Amino acid sequence: MKAFVLTVKTGSFASASISLNTSPQMVAKYILFLETQLGLKLLNRTTRSKILPNLVSSIMSAV
What we know:
Blueprint: H1 2-10, H2 13-20, H3 24-38, E1 44-45, E2 50-51, H4 54-62
Antiparallel strand pairs: 1-2
């Protein structure tokens, strides 16, 4: 969950990975695992950005 929150706050796997002292690839895997467990897509990934779906965006703004 921490990997997801940091990715949202920083806007990238690379930035989140620095805070977590791991690689961007591991951050992506953590988030993919979380998405699998929840049965919900948390990030819409593009090559340049990670965009939150509307539901997830609403939840994150409340946190």
